[in-house]
Amino acid sequence: MSILKSLRNSFRASQKKRWNRQYDKSHVTRVENGLQVLANQGKKLSNSDGKKAEDYAIEVLGAVDFAPWLKLYTAFRGEFMEGWIPDNYLGRVICPAINGELKGISSYKTLSKQLLRTDALPDLAYRIKGTWLTAERIGTTLAEVKSSCFDHYPFVYLKRNFSFQGNGVFKLYPKDFEGFAFDKLGDFVIQAPIFQHPFLEEISPGSVATLRITTVKQNQKPAETRLCGLRIGRKGMEYIETKGAMRIPVSPKEGTLYPFAIEADWHLRDKHPDTGVSFAGKTIPNYAAATQLCESVHDWFPHIQLIGWDAAITPEGEVKLMEWNTDEPGIVYSESSIGPHFRGLGWENLWKSK
Amino acid sequence: MISYLRKQYRLNQDKRKNQAIDAYYNRGASAAFNSLLKQLPHHALSPNQEKEIETYAGDVFGSPSFSPWLKVFTLCRGQFVPGWMPLDYWARIVCPTLNGSLQPVGKIKTLTQKFLNAAELPDLAYHVNGSWLLTSGEKTNPGEVRKLLFDAYPSVFLKQDNTSRGGGVMKIDADQFSKLDFDKLGDFVIQAPIEAHEFFKKLSPTAVPSLRVTTYKAPAQPARVVQSGIRLGLMGTPFIYEDDCIRIAIRITDGVTHDFGFSGDWQILNVHSETGIPITGLQIPKYQEIKTLCENLHDQNPHFGLIAWDMTVDNNDRIKIMEWNTVTPAFNMDEAAIGPHFKGLGFEDFWKRKNPGR
Hints:
Number of helices of chain A: 10
Strand order of the largest sheet of chain B: 11-10-9-8-7-12-13
Order of helices and strands of chain A: HHHHHEEEHEEHEHEEEEEHEEH
Number of helices of chain B: 12
Order of helices and strands of chain B: HHHHHHEEEHEEHHEHEEEEEHEEH
Largest sheet of chain B: 7 strands, antiparallel
Oligomer: heterodimer
Structural class of chain A: alpha+beta
Shape of chain B: globular
Number of strands of chain B: 13
Radius of gyration of chain B: 22 Å
Distance between the termini of chain A: 23 Å
Shape of chain A: globular
Strand content of chain A: 15-25%
Helix content of chain B: 25-40%
């Protein structure tokens, strides 16, 4: 091999390594902080458990890089469990392998309804490259959009493409429409507001709780719900933002709440800090309808094997979909507390394929 | 030092990538040039003309490397016409800029109907990641699909995802269907056969000809047709495959075929090379309606700046969509014959943007 060729190969290998390290960086920080917070709550990681996590990461998942989340999961549960999926393994190995070239498609919120064809999405209008379209994709105007929004709803939500975790979401009242800089926002969808079931209003007062249902559709098989969690807000939140929200892991089959809500920084709460409402033993109303809807919409889109759905339950028990996530749907709060959720899928071998 | 080396490596990588793309899209240019030169020796380019074209490519498109197709067009027409679009610039700069990260989506044929939702698309069933679906979204199985397909048609067309220009297309009957290894074929759509309109049948007796209509949608503007041509099949081919066809440009104002077309190897023709049927000055049936349909469908899909539609008309006068193209629809023969098609749209300035084509 020529010197140049060997230099190029080692440059490429080092580039890949750098990229992986860069990718893992935020995960490492999140785990370090999380472990600290968990330790303060009496959930300490023993040295021998830490070693178990490292050995498992190397042997089963192919790199010690995947040990940090396993350590956190272990600290949370008090014991190491085989079959857990570390979040960075999901992001850098699983999603690219099973969601492939369409991995990023859910970032186009202006395409969700067109691709998924479900009335469960509350889309009212789109603005795409300066063109206004109705939810049926018929050309329209700002004035028509305004009346179609506010003839029915007191306010609406605007969500930008490529926004995530609540960034890029605006709540708009009729007066906000005048002089609003729509041109500066790029492409976006306008969605009808969703009003939630009293059960959820009690748990997440003032902001619509998001029921995250993660479905997996294996080759030739129907989609199945594998993981679930409920994201709830704090008082004063208009809508759920990742940073301030709490997550209550939910048993994926029954829809029963875990006794604790977990704050973004891994503080555990057995009651809602603002209302004192407890979570233990409660079950989400119409849960089966929610998982069935997500599974059937997933079956209609077999191109993607892993989808995280953000659902809501209305006062009448109807299931609405706020959005879908095809690019690394988060799993850590449910996976640590009630996982493993993804056993038997062969995901632990995906790192071995090219 | 390391960071300097890294930068140099990246620059060099970009340059090599660009060269590879240009080489790929220019690979047919010298054969086209030589073929035209034999037929039109009086159009031979003088060294001065060649120099002028290279200077033009450098000034307008940012690099003289974009000149090979411009030289072919000039040779064809006997003079240089400003505004022509070289294919490598089109592929490397224009299409990625206009269609962004959704550019490859048009290759996923099992998604076409989700984007278009059009009765004119003859899709019947999909096979994706091992699952069978009907166009309604209903789950199904190979047995049901077989019955559905072959109770209605003697044969159907199977088109694989991520293929183009007739690659990955199969015409299959019931027996062949039973013998297929679906898992090996990956993801694919099955489309109903189209019985072509008398007009098209006469022009292309065995393969349904493909009427290309390219629409451009500028930001906040309605989509409009900017280019059009037709591809005619050769004898014995069940569908049009790569360059094994005859192409003739179409005037987009009225849908009339140009005064001459080309064979796959750039032989100038005014009759079908096999049947002898005249191909020039013909009025395409339902042309205005086809244009309107393409523009309307494009207006429903504003994410894409550019869409090339492969259309036809069946024997019941119904317009049909064979497929859509969002990746790099090529148009060289039409551009040579009646171009420029894209003048005044500002595409020639895209290379000046930061990260052009990304």
